[in-house]
């Protein structure tokens, strides 16, 4: 039996990117019950990819009963719906076998990872204050993506002078704006910029020097995305809601690394249940950005454990 329900988690504060703001994380929870054992998965439908809560629910409800994880990869496209079902099937298989998911996947037991902490888009004063509150965190991710980002960059660096910084423009810059900002990103010690230009309008990235590594987010979903990234990007951001689950995420990681890309593992704003499978993918990668639960005012009954910015592997009571 497969059941999908909608859940909402309040955010600790308003979260803003270049596309808009939100005050809650609206997610879908999938439960797969077979032989008295229940596995769970979570997804976050994302409007940028043409997904809604209703459309993704309909996709999930259309999954044939008893489907295998292998057959699921062809039954649903990469995206949020397949992610929730895929992760629920992994969780179910581990519980039924009495082991952990990484044992089934042939992976070493995961170790704790250091995650970035995201500062949402705001006024320079607000972003400086947020940076100062989190200045003890080793890695901050700044949401930008407007033509007026220079004061924000300066403010965050002033508020957190010792933190490593990465920047996510969420496709919000033009080629001209990015060309103007790039030297200042380097001057301020930014280590990476994520999706500076719109996916599909990013050819300029292949025509310029990239002393600052550029990461593909909206431009990279699964392994079929990789040919279109060549020469333009240095890193790929793997999110399970884009790949369509843990199965494809692990395959994308291996394929991307084989082609010479560095790997970032990121997330939508969801609960600990959404982050837990991604911890397996996040092992040994260049950048981990699994801070979704840190942005919430409420979480799952059994949440992930964060010690500052150090994310511990999930317990079996949560997932896997």
Structure description:
- It is a single chain.
- This protein is an alpha/beta fold.
- It has ten helices and 14 strands.
- It has an eight-stranded parallel beta sheet. A three-stranded antiparallel beta sheet has the order 1-2-3.
- It has helices at 53-61, 69-75, 80-97, 101-104, 124-133, 150-159, 175-187, 240-243, 246-258, 272-281, and strands spanning 2-17, 20-34, 37-43, 113-114, 117-119, 139-143, 164-168, 190-194, 214-216, 235-238, 262-265, 287-288, 306-307, 310-311.
- 31% of the residues lie in helices and 23% in strands.
- The mean pLDDT is 95.
- The longest helix is centred in the N-terminal third of the chain and has 18 residues, at 80-97.
Main sheet characteristics: 8 strands, parallel
The total of helices stands at: 10
Helix content: 25-40%
Q: What is the helix/strand order?
A: EEEHHHHEEHEHEHEEEHHEHEEE
Class per helix and strand makeup = alpha/beta
Beta content: 15-25%
Strand order of the largest sheet: 5-6-7-8-9-10-11-12
Distance between the termini: 19 Å
- Shape from CA axes? globular
Secondary structure: number of strands:
14
Tell me the radius of gyration: 19 Å
The whole-number mean of residue pLDDT values reads 95
Stretches with pLDDT under 50, minimum 5 residues: none
